[in-house]
Amino acid sequence: MKDVAAEAGVALGTVSKVFNGFPVGESYRIRVEQAAKKLGYRVNNYARGMRTNRTNTISIIMPMICHPFFSKLTECIIRELDSHDYNAFVSVTDRNPKAEARCIRMVAQNKTDGIIALTYDPDFNNIGNIPFVSIDRSFTGSCPCITSDNYTGGQIAAAKLHELGCRKLLYARTGSPIPGETDKRGYGFENWCQTNSVSYDIINTKVDNDQMIEKIREMVENGTFDYDGIFCSTDLLLILIRNELNRLGIRVPEDVQMIGFDGSIDFFTGLPVCSSIEQPIEQLAKVAVNTILNYDSENTPSLICLPVRYIPGPTTKDWI
Q: Whose CB among 22, 58, 159, 248 lies 3.0–4.6 Å from 17's, allowing a Cys bridge?
């Protein structure tokens, strides 16, 4: 820091205040920052955190990043943190409770300032006083949960399939067996079908996509597959089922129309990969970051629910 102080023409204490986030005159701050940039000086956030209890780093816990939704959400959270001059420490857990526990220990040791997590650990409840924002799963206590309006999304999907002429609907669901906000996709779908006297079935194979595909294959081969509209819990599951139906000679959308959930976009074309209930991923990230950086568990709503919308794609007949 002595070199920075000499380059900026200020006292060493002024440099220390700037690096540690304490108030100084604007002209001094600019001089210190310009000198630090010129000299290639980088602040050690962890060392600073030991002195100030702030590291300007947030831990992000994700179960995986190979899934389109998780990867996009992680990207948006990192970008939003960066806009606030915060760093991100990303932990990809593959639903491993030990990995999630390590992340909590890091925060407890003042190595990061809080956690934004999408966790499926059934024991992930006792987080103490650690600033914590959950995605898609509500916890006991005052921990805020940020999610999309999954229930309305399920209703929209059922209504749209019926509007497009489908009369026998199926909700296909894979995902964590741990209760969470995404379960409401099925509840909304079921409620709309019951309220409007529309025939429907539900297949839930927990986390096993292969088992879902095998179930679809068995129904087609034994002649019990009589659905003309399918709502899938994720876009990824829709793609897997669509591919299997096509392989078995059932055309999408000519014979069966399908709607997913997430709003995935093709990387190369920028077009929807399927008809889908679009989650506001960028807004989810913004709200999650704003909540963790202004953490007030007592005055923040326990559930913050963001609106969704239907986007047509190549798996329904309204795609132009």
A: 22
Structural domains in the chain, CATH included, are 2-43 (no CATH), 57-148+281-306 (3.40.50.2300), 150-279 (3.40.50.2300)
- The tokens describing 224, both together, are 């019990």
- pLDDT per position as a tens digit, 106-121: 777 777 889 999 887 7
Q: What is the pLDDT of residues 201-260, one digit of tens each?
A: 999 988 789 999 999 999 999 999 999 999 999 999 999 999 999 999 999 999 999 999
Global pTM reads 0.82
**What pLDDT digit, counting tens, does each position of 13-60 carry?**
887 777 666 677 888 888 888 888 777 776 555 445 444 567 889 999
